[in-house]
């Protein structure tokens, strides 16, 4: 598996898109630091961009890489390598190379700005950890979609829809249901809704760590009492972890039954 | 060496194999023949574990291949259509496959044999069909495994390369290797194979020596014998 991972990683490291992605984040974080002139504020702005973009890039890259390397995959499958290792290796190659572009792209400008001497370092680390989780989650989901769809156009379509749903539509549905059900106690519902969607979970985690939960109003207080404790914090990371593991398990199961 | 029992495979509505039963003898070269879409490639891919049968099993060296992958160490496989990642160079691909199989390889010798020396730093996407097939052959024969599966090995080759390929196969036969070959070029089959398995309508229609197939159909050459079978069965 590690050999496959190594080759997928090299392959992506040579591709132009990894650099474009890296340079984009480099530019974004430099510009934000320059404009905000303050680490904590830059982190907040960055969060808003990262929460939308990281899942999008993870989804598109995951699908694209799967379809692009189909020929290579069939070549590998005829070799004495375990099937699941081929797919797991490729997936980890994509997820790791995206994560490294992201961590370096965001990390370098912040380091140069003096992150290490600042108190915001933990907030920034949380942002990076959460963004890495999102990369792993969404490239795994995209890999699943690509595995189940022979037709590239359909695969891309479903992948974009998935992103749109998670990043945009889901919030809308939650909001509407909160409005419709406003006569009932909603803390439980809204809390569950936040926990189920990885993007919302990531957002809430960061916001609460940044101590701007006042922005969240009354529900914020509920969240604070849940996430603020180490137990809640632990629980949310556990859920992010589950979000990574479940799609990976499905990659195993589907790839074992598929014909090539 | 390989025994196939009651193999069934369906792709959506299309029932490709309907109870194929055959055995490949060690040290012989067996040609698998059949009209287009008769399931030759599917059969070969099932033996390799790339396609999973709906029913039936494959025994390789007394071991069921289900959920196993290590038996592929004994197999060299030439895929029908050589689709390689376009952006990598010939030499890189060779090194990569060598690294993955972790076995001594005779790549230098084969690069010379198939005249690929000048193309090693070329990207695979820039190669012509014939050269891709040569790279394909090189990757297949590189490891000197005892069992070889060739799916349409002649496609795209010029006459000189074809002669070289036949010579090479003869050398491998002399070493006592077991070879399966599928092809539509009957002259080629006649030259390399001693045993023929003919698949028709998802089943084994004929399984015997090359000569007995010709005798049975009272034809001197294989091409007409096969055409005869196809006509009789309205294919």
Automatic annotation (TrEMBL), chain A:
Key word Nucleus present: no
Source domain of life: Bacteria
Keyword Coiled coil: no
Keywords per UniProt: Membrane, Transmembrane, Transmembrane helix
Bilayer-spanning residue ranges: 20-36, 42-67, 88-115, 121-143, 155-181, 233-253
Protein name (Swiss-Prot/TrEMBL): ABC transporter permease
Native species: Paucihalobacter ruber
Automatic annotation (TrEMBL), chain B:
Domain of life from the UniProt record: Bacteria
PROSITE patterns: ABC_TRANSPORTER_2
Residue ranges occupied by any ABC transporter domain in the UniProt entry: 2-226
SMART domains: AAA
GO function term, MF aspect, one: ATP binding
Alphabetized Pfam families for the sequence: ABC_tran (PF00005)
The name this protein goes by in its record: ABC transporter ATP-binding protein
Keywords: ATP-binding, Nucleotide-binding, Transport
């Amino acid at each position: 598996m590690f050999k496959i991972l190594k080759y997928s990683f090299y392959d992506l490291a040579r591709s132009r898109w990894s650099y474009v992605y890296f340079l984009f984040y480099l530019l974004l974080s430099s510009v934000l630091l320059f404009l905000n002139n303050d680490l904590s504020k830059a982190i907040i702005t960055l969060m808003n961009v990262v929460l939308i973009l990281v899942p999008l890039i993870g989804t598109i890259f995951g699908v694209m890489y799967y379809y692009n390397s189909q020929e290579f995959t069939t070549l590998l499958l005829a070799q004495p390598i375990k099937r699941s290792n081929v797919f797991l290796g490729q997936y980890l190659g994509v997820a790791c190379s995206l994560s490294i572009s992201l961590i370096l792209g965001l990390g370098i400008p912040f380091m140069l700005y003096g992150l290490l001497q600042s108190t915001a370092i933990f907030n920034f680390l949380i942002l990076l950890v959460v963004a890495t989780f999102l990369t792993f989650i969404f490239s795994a989901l995209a890999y699943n979609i690509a595995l189940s769809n022979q037709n590239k156009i359909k695969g891309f379509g479903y992948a974009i829809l998935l992103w749109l749903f998670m990043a945009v539509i889901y919030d809308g549905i939650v909001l509407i249901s909160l409005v419709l059900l406003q006569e009932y106690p909603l803390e439980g519902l809204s809390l569950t809704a936040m926990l189920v969607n990885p993007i919302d979970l990531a957002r809430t985690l960061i916001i609460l760590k940044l101590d701007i939960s006042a922005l969240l109003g009354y529900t914020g207080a509920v969240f604070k009492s849940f996430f603020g404790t180490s137990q809640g914090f632990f629980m949310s990371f556990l859920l992010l972890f589950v979000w990574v593991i479940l799609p990976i398990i499905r990659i195993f199961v589907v790839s074992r039954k598929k014909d090539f | 060496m390989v025994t196939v029992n009651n193999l069934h495979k369906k792709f959506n509505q299309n029932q490709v194999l309907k109870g194929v039963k055959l055995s490949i003898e060690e040290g012989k070269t067996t040609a698998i023949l059949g009209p287009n879409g008769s399931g030759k490639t599917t059969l070969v891919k099932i033996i390799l574990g790339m396609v999973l049968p709906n029913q039936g099993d494959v025994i390789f060296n007394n071991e069921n291949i289900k959920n196993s992958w290590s038996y592929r160490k004994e197999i060299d496989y030439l895929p029908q259509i050589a689709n390689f990642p376009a952006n990598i160079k010939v030499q890189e691909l060779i090194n990569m496959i060598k690294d993955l199989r972790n076995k001594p390889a005779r790549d230098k010798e084969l690069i010379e044999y198939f005249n690929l020396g000048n193309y090693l730093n070329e990207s695979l996407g820039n190669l012509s069909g014939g050269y891709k097939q040569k790279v394909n052959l090189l990757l297949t024969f590189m490891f000197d495994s005892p069992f070889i599966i060739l799916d349409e090995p002649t496609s795209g080759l010029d006459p000189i390369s074809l002669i070289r390929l036949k010579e090479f196969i003869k050398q491998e036969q002399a070493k006592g290797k077991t070879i399966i070959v599928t092809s539509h070029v009957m002259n080629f089959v006649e030259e390399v194979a001693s045993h023929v398995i003919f698949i028709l309508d998802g089943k084994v229609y004929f399984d015997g020596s090359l000569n007995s197939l010709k005798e049975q159909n009272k034809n001197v050459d294989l091409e007409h014998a096969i055409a005869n079978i196809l006509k009789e069965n309205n294919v």
